Amino acid sequence: MSAPDALPDNESNASPTVREVQLTTYEPDEGCDDNGLKVESDEDGEENLRATKKRKCTSKIWGGFKEVTLANGIVKAECIYCSDRLPFNKTGSTGHLDRHLTECYQKIVVEKPKQPGFEYDHEEFRETLSHMIIVHELSFSFAESKLFNSLMESVNPHYKKVSCARAKKDCLVAFEIEKEELKTDLDNANRVNVSTDLWKSGEDVLYMVVSCQYMDFDMNLQKRILNFCEVPPPHSGRVISDVLHKCLVEWEIEKKVWTITVDNAACNDAAVRILMENLSLNNNLPFNGKLFPVKCYAHMLNLVVQDGLCAIEDVIIKVRESVKYVVASETRISMFSEIAKESALSSKKLVLDCCTRWNATYSMLSAALDLKDVFSKYQQRDTSFTLLPSEEEWNKVRVVCSLLKNSMQAIHLSQGTEYTTSNCVGVDFVCLRRHLSKLNVGEDTCMIDMVTKMKVRFDKYWSECNLLMCIAVVLDPRFKMFIIDWCFKDIYSTTEAAERRIAFLETLHLLYNEYVEADEANKAKTDKSSSDHGGGGKFLDDIEAEYLEYLKNEPSKSDLDVYLSDKKERPPNSNHDEFDAISWWKTDSSVYRYGILSKMACDVLSISMTTVTSDSAFDAGNRVIDPRYASMGVDRAQFLLCGGDWLRNRFDIKRTTQEKKSIQEFNLA
Predict the structure, then answer these.
(1) What's this model's pTM, rounded to 2 decimal places?
(2) Where are the domains of the chain?
(3) Which end of the chain, N or C, is less packed with Cβ atoms under 10 Å?
(4) Averaged pLDDT of the chain
(5) 282/262 Cα distance (integer angstroms)
(6) What's the burial of 393, exposed, middle or buried (CB within 10 Å: 0-12/13-18/19+)?
(7) 537: phi > 0 → left, psi -120 to 50 → alpha, else beta; which?
(8) Quick one: which of 291, 571, 607 has its CA closest to 419?
């Protein structure tokens, strides 16, 4: 019976003395015969055989091992595949060595037949590793991580380690490659829409994130972060304009910029005005710059919501403190839950908000409003509870909750997708404005003042961005002129609404004519190039002038007129949430029927009217950058933010951020 399996020996860290003996062959020691027997001569010169005999190593097992002598003199058998060291068995058994070779993973990998065409490419591995480090924001030393290298060695025996310095160089190369590819993509774009977002660090250092949204060569909507840069003091409009202009020049898109979206900060107004003047010197801005400045819709909506919350701030405090009082002890929650069960409201929850997240405040107020009667009955049982809002205060909460609900829906609808399109914002704005005008606030002067203040903000935003929003909703095939007529009737008098409708249609045709002229100019260049390679024949030359004159005099509708006279598009199953206006304009039937208008529609709809994500749109606090980015320096932060964004888009990876815990929920069941 063979000895039990021996574990690989790693007991000695000292460098062993290795006797590289090939155990598959055997050479007799000096003084031995061919059979390995020790030979001695007696006095008569005759040879006597001694009893000792060294066995031949004839087993095939020895082909996978070599004999190694450690520093302490112990002899081991070392696996030639994985370098594990196993002891020699005194009985000469090799069963434990055989079992080791059977299970040795490195031996299995080496002897496994290679897949056709498979070959380890170390350069490709380094490129993939650099992408992984950038996207997941890992440290460069990750390449030297012991467990990572153990993992790679276990799956690929040909794996070669990558040093920290090499990983850093590879990441920088990957960043530059992605940057050049994005430049090429932007060079093929017809129009580029830029947006800026300003952030502050804990040390009051101002940073600017510059993004762009555009239609690529294949008419797919794309969004990329271009720059993360520091804005030097003083943070004036001139300084912000210079920083932004430098970014546009660096990316070679200063002649392609159509719009720029900024928040409502006063310095941004001056920055946009100065930038517009600078770009106009070297480039005729499309549509004479009428669509150039765009105010962030999410920022405006946030200000409107704050107006509503400030109007009932004392009531919000009462509700918040009431919830805190109830959830402060198990006894109170138990009593509250019993009352909720008696009122058939046990499925409801108590919610405690985060003060800087207005969507959380809405959740708290809405939940408390559902449990209004429970709070009233609870006060009858607990005489210490004195924070119950009055009936009048509950009515205020009901009015504000109605407004907040519609505001949340507007943000989710306009930013429910990765790319925000201008038609969604236009429809949301019109619906919110109409809801606000029909809001019933009774005779409460405080609520009347609140609604008035909100309307002023809506009207101010309308005066700044109404042209873009109107063009965008008209180019939404579901609505066309319906939203315009519906909106104008609500905002203006009958006479003024009719005048403004005529003026708007004239402006829309002017924009369309710009695209027609640009298309004709491109065709003229193409025709000239074709004529250089031969004409169409004498017959066509003779009638060409008369044929062109005939086309001019022939009555015809423009693509825009045809589009406006056609029936409106109805989404399948009336599912408006999943309708994509840009995709509709890209279909072959739309391109064939509406020609140049389809290109204009894609350009207009690709304009972003917000600078923030939907999650940030609910934030009522200051825009403070993550301390991790602020501490690593601008170049490193730009490397991670921009490079990560480019690579995530390349591999279609959605950015995952740690969700802010903005509410606490307490079950009553």
Answers:
(1) 0.75
(2) 1-112, 122-175, 302-463
(3) N
(4) 82
(5) 22
(6) middle
(7) left
(8) 607
